[in-house]
Amino acid sequence: MSQYDLTIVFPVYNEARRIDLHKERVNELSFKHSVQIVYVNDGSVDGCFEMMKQDLSADHVKFVENPRNLGKGGAVRTGIEASDGSYVLFTDFDVPVAPEVFEGIFKQIYGKEQTVIIGVRKKTNEVKKSESRIRKYLSWGFQSFLKWVIGIKVTDSQCGFKIFDNKSGKEIFSRMKTNGFAFDVEMLLLAQRLGVKVEEYPVVILEDCGPSTINIFVDPFKMVIEILKIRWRLIFAKV
User: What is the distance between the alpha carbons of residues 236 and 232, in angstroms, rounded to a whole number?
Assistant: First the structure.
């Protein structure tokens, strides 16, 4: 029997400037179930992990480190491997969703096996108005590419808010090779191959999480190339 009902994994890379925001939002979380938090240092060089160990240490908190910067996918994989909860959720360090979303997605998965639930970003009217037309077209094109070329039929593959039963999470991530931002796609492809059910849960991203680090003119094309490599590799992989 697992020691915790839920493990939350936070990848950490040079987050010194956002530690106060993180602490504020984590303190707002309230669960009826036992929760473990796993922080994964992915090669930070700004001293943030040492500060976190001083400020955030507790019995339910685990600190693990990658030997070097692997990328978000590598950090999430390390965190899931270290998780002790019956269910494991990963999200971004800035805690980009409201507290009730954590409880809601956990309520949807609780009692289920062979299941992953992925967050689907619902945009507020303010965000829709400020979003550029090119970003909208790129998002539509990327999801269409995943659906018709790769065979992943989900609304939002890239939302950084996903939860698994622990067994399925570890089975999926132990087979993964991708460390970069395309890891979500490999994760969903492996879930399909392993017969893990994929469900969705609507989430509203908080508006003060800081600017995106994605270059909309370069990164989508890099991801397409990486995804094609993933698809080709999995055609011949034995799962």
Answer: 7
Q: Is 128 exposed, middle or buried (0-12, 13-18, 19+ CB in 10 A)?
A: exposed
Question: Could you list the pLDDT tens digit for every one of the 239 residues in the chain?
Answer: 678 999 999 999 999 999 999 999 999 998 889 999 999 999 999 999 999 999 999 999 999 999 999 999 999 999 999 999 999 999 999 999 999 999 999 999 999 999 999 999 886 555 555 555 776 777 777 778 888 877 888 989 989 999 999 999 999 999 999 998 899 999 999 999 999 999 999 999 886 555 555 555 567 778 888 888 898 888 877 76
Domain ranges of the chain: 4-236
Q: Is 65 helix (H, G, I), strand (E, B) or coil?
A: strand
Sign of torsion, CA 204 157 11 127? negative
146 DSSP 8-state letter? I
Burial of 88 (0-12, 13-18, 19+ CB in 10 A): buried
Task: Give, for 115, the enclosing helix (H) or strand (E).
Answer: strand 115-121
Instruction: Kindly report the CATH class assigned to 4-236.
Output: alpha beta
